[in-house]
Specification:
Elements (H helix, E strand, L loop, with lengths): L8 E5 L12 H10 L4 E5 L28 E7 L6 E8 L1 H16 L3 E7 L5 H4 L28 H18 L5 E6 L9 H15 L8 E7 L11 E7 L5 H5 L7 E5 L7 H13 L4 E5 L24 H15 L7 E2 L9 H4 L4 E5 L3 E6 L5 E6 L2 E9 L5 E8 L2 E6 L8 E7 L1
């Protein structure tokens, strides 16, 4: 629920650097998302940045030049930071960082955009750890004398854990008054030695820090790449996010949680829109609550998302795809989506031949139906109860659409697909 309304978070966002990269024009970026009908973005909070060229990402927004790196911690007077400039003082906060954080949250709030505040990220290899202010080589405090696999554990360096705890408490104290964000403990904690015990400890710190404050916010956990069954989650975890969750089996596998399941990172298949558009529709039709495409068309200087994505970039992104995802968001918002349930046995609604063309089906039996076909057939047969229905058809590629009303006496209902809808197809039927 966001501002009193059931909400799905659907977006195509930049590579998480808008806070830490001072050169990135976040105003233009957020306005672009809003204008494309999207309502979310991930935001890495600063302890982690990347070197230029990491993961084959050109013009990586999460790889700021040293002079543009906006860290939570203030620079000291001592030179020697790994990528240039002075080292950091882990006992002193950086006012410019928090000013920028407030500006971003306020701008996003005005546009109705929900941000994921991703507090930490594993050090995938030494190249990332060598750039972190938490590394002993980069601060004047003598803290962080550990290998990268011991950065996020409870049995590592006590002083480093205290820095992380203080960082979490400081972030909570600064952002608590905003309603347009949720916390994520750690991006991809299944890499780099991040322990489950550490994640739960940081969760406890978050919960404790928000106690008695004006607002309490959702806390997300990044579960796995692909899929995994969640067992024994921390009771404060309210959103369960997956990466590269195709096919979207993680939604059904975790239905026992009775909590929203999201896919908050995509990529590593190709650079073309078709794959990610279909991935998005299949995930949301499986009952997903959040889809965040990682969009490499956003770069410094092209915060309007006009950068042309080329190989070997590990993902895609384009103005056309963002408009298609915006149309998907509006499709679901036409429905009473809180009452829709994934239907595993599609033959209860579709004859066998038609069922083969339908990827996923959501239904509130007798009241509303929504389904998706990766290739539009010429007609669709359904077993539909008697009633008057509004039918909405959307070509999810070209965005051609048709709205009609039909009166049905019950039993088999045949829906003829207009000739102008020739590609992928999404249909909703709502009983009037």
């Amino acid at each position: 629920i966001f501002r009193g309304e059931p909400t799905l978070l659907i977006t195509s966002g930049e590579h998480y650097g808008m806070l830490v990269n001072e050169a990135f024009n976040f105003d233009l970026y957020l306005e672009t998302l809003h204008n494309d009908g999207l309502n979310s973005s991930r935001l890495f909070m600063g302890p982690y940045i990347e070197p230029a060229g990491a993961f084959n990402i050109p013009d990586n927004t999460l790889a700021p030049a040293s002079e543009h790196y906006v860290s939570p911690w203030k620079r000291s007077a001592e030179p020697g930071y790994a990528s240039g400039g002075n080292k950091f003082d882990l006992s002193a906060w950086n006012p410019a960082y928090f000013e920028r954080l407030h500006q971003i949250l306020q701008k996003a709030s005005e546009l109705g955009i929900v941000l994921e505040l991703t507090l930490f990220c594993p050090m995938y290899d030494d190249a990332q750890w060598n750039l972190s202010p938490m590394n002993i080589q980069n601060n004047i405090n003598g803290i962080g004398n550990v290998t990268r696999e011991k950065v996020y554990t409870l049995d590592g360096e006590k002083e480093l854990l205290q820095v992380q705890e203080a960082f979490v408490r400081k972030i909570v104290s600064e952002v608590n008054g905003y309603d347009n964000f949720y916390f994520e403990i750690c991006n991809e904690p299944y890499f780099g030695g991040v322990t489950d015990e550490w994640q739960k400890h940081i969760t406890d710190i978050l919960v404790e820090a928000e106690q008695g404050k004006k607002k309490q916010h959702l806390i997300s956990v990044n579960v796995a790449n692909g899929s995994a069954v969640v067992s024994n989650p921390h009771p404060a975890w309210s959103l369960f996010n997956f990466h590269y969750c195709t096919p979207p089996v993680a939604v059904a596998e975790n239905a026992h949680l009775n909590k929203p399941v999201g896919m908050n990172e995509t990529g590593f298949h190709n650079i073309y829109d078709e794959y990610y558009r279909r991935e998005a529709w299949n995930f949301m039709m499986a009952g997903g609550a959040l889809y965040n495409h990682l969009d490499y068309s956003f770069t410094v200087g092209k915060e309007d998302g006009s950068n042309i994505v080329l190989e070997p970039t590990p993902g895609g992104g384009s103005p056309a795809l963002r408009k298609q995802l915006g149309a998907m968001k509006r499709f679901f918002e036409r429905l009473r989506f809180l009452h829709l349930t994934p239907v595993s046995e599609k033959s209860s609604v579709f004859p066998s031949e038609t069922a083969k063309t339908v990827s996923y089906l959501l239904a509130e039996t007798g009241k509303q139906y929504a389904f998706y076909c990766e290739q539009a057939p010429k007609q669709i047969e359904m077993n539909l109860p008697e009633g008057n229905y509004q039918v909405y058809m959307l070509d999810t590629h070209t965005l051609r659409e048709k709205v009609s009303s039909v009166s049905h006496g019950g039993g088999t209902f045949t829906l003829t697909i207009p000739q102008e809808i020739t590609d992928e197809l999404a249909i909703s039927l709502m009983k009037q």
